[in-house]
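Workshop exercise sheet. Pairs work together: one partner reads the sequence aloud, the other fills in the structure field after running the prediction. Swap roles for the next sheet.
Pair: D.N. / O.F.
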Amino acid sequence: MTSARLYIPKLTETNDEMSIDPQELRVVKDSDLITSPTKDDALTPQMLKLQKKLRKQVSKAIHDFNMIEDGDVIMVCVSGGKDSYTLLDLLLKLKQIAPIHFDVVAVNLDQKQPGYPEEILPNYLNEQGIAHYILEKDTYSIVKSLVPEGKTYCSACSRLRRGSLYGFAKQIGATKIALGHHRDDMLATFFLNLFHGGTLKSMPPKLLSDDKQNIIIRPLAYVEEKDIVEYARLRAFPIIPCNLCGSQTNLQRAVINDMLREWDAMHPQRLASIFKAMQNVAPSQLADRELFDFERLSLARDDSERPFEGQYIQAGQPSSLADIGLPVAPATQAFSSSNTSKSTDRASNNSTTSLQPDSHSAPQKIPLINPIV
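Structure field:
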């Protein structure tokens, strides 16, 4: 039986002069970030600069995918990790300055892991005056009983957690469920599915659950993990490490994350390019027969012809070509383009003259021949 503790603070008016564009609504462990939270009035210029950057990225993701609408009640799933703390903090900031009205409620699922510091998160939420629920359910024992020794707990743990949170969102009337997955999580999931699942898929920024009872949003979709690490450090969130699966050494996701961090260090634009590719899919250039109708592709040629541009065509076995109905001597035409006539003339006058373009003439262009569509 799941139980819940509710705290609804007495809200006070705040003056927030932070501006926002209307169109934009070092590897560190979580345990290294544990300290006391920083109040808004103690934000340094460095914090404000990073906060503005993250706010802009979150606002753009919300705008691009229409994540939040007027009147929404956003249930933010807060685990006690850096990602969910950052998500909650930024959504509360945006709520103060957004042109629409929406409400935010934090929900934490206490899975009854041994040694779990259950007082840290409610103490933080109470100090910050954030409306929240603490759900108590012993999924830890269920996961331990279901997963064989030596196997990772993540899949079973996430399914149980997701089922409880999805059901609770409907119970309290929350219209959207906000999760703290960021850009690097989405990239890691993409490569996990690519390397181990044989599918091209990841975590979408916005998702309708299979039973169509909940809409899940990921407002941190455009945010890099390293920025979240720095923001959590500057904001001094009271991080709660995950001792259930976080301590396991055989996690494939951890291997993928290490790979992504190495790439980011050596090739700073690579992850951004990969994420851009996830937003720029060309189904006809892949091989999914369900996504693109390869079987019904057909020619739509007209009567115009374009003779081969070159010097000569050597036809072999002309009688066989004729039997097939193919031309024995296909037509050719001179290979030429704009700005090449001078070089051709020079070559005809002096066969030993270099064909390098004149340094005083316009650069020559390679003609587009048989373009690939």
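Discussion prompt: The chain has eleven helices and nine strands. What would you look at next?
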